[in-house]
Write a structure and sequence with these properties.
The protein is mainly α. It has a domain of about 60 residues: Winged helix-like DNA-binding domain superfamily/Winged helix DNA-binding domain (Arc Repressor Mutant, subunit A). Helices cover about 55% and strands about 10% of the residues. The chain has 5 helices and 2 strands, in the order αααββαα. The chain has a two-stranded antiparallel sheet with strand order 1-2. A hairpin with a 2-residue loop joins strand 1 and strand 2.
Length: about 100
């Protein structure tokens, strides 16, 4: 969670689901220097949210499914209580109850 708290880092992370990208491509996408992107990618790699693969003389960055699975598992623990709160709010407002998963 901390790794994604920075808006620039989050923008870099959000640019990766479409396709693996090199530092220069990410820098152009988010509008910061290549050196700043490299620093942000280091933090994201340490958090296991992105991984790097060499391809020729370039290094391509993509989302790391291991870290994403860890983040999903962490967030899923809150899902039942979020649904219960939503259901309670709908009941108080007199609206329809959401379907159970």
């Amino acid at each position: 969670m901390t790794a994604l708290a920075d808006p620039t880092r989050r923008a870099i992370f959000e640019a990766l689901p479409q396709a693996p990208r090199a530092v220069g491509e990410l820098a152009a996408t988010v509008g910061v220097s290549s050196s700043a992107v490299s620093q942000h990618l280091r933090v994201l790699r340490e958090a296991r949210l992105v991984m790097v693969r060499p391809r020729g003389n370039r290094r391509l960055y993509s989302l790391d499914p291991r870290g994403l699975a860890d983040a999903r598992d962490y967030l899923e623990q809150f899902w039942p209580s979020a649904l219960a709160a939503y259901s309670a709010a709908l009941s108080e407002a007199g609206g329809p109850r959401p379907p159970r998963p």
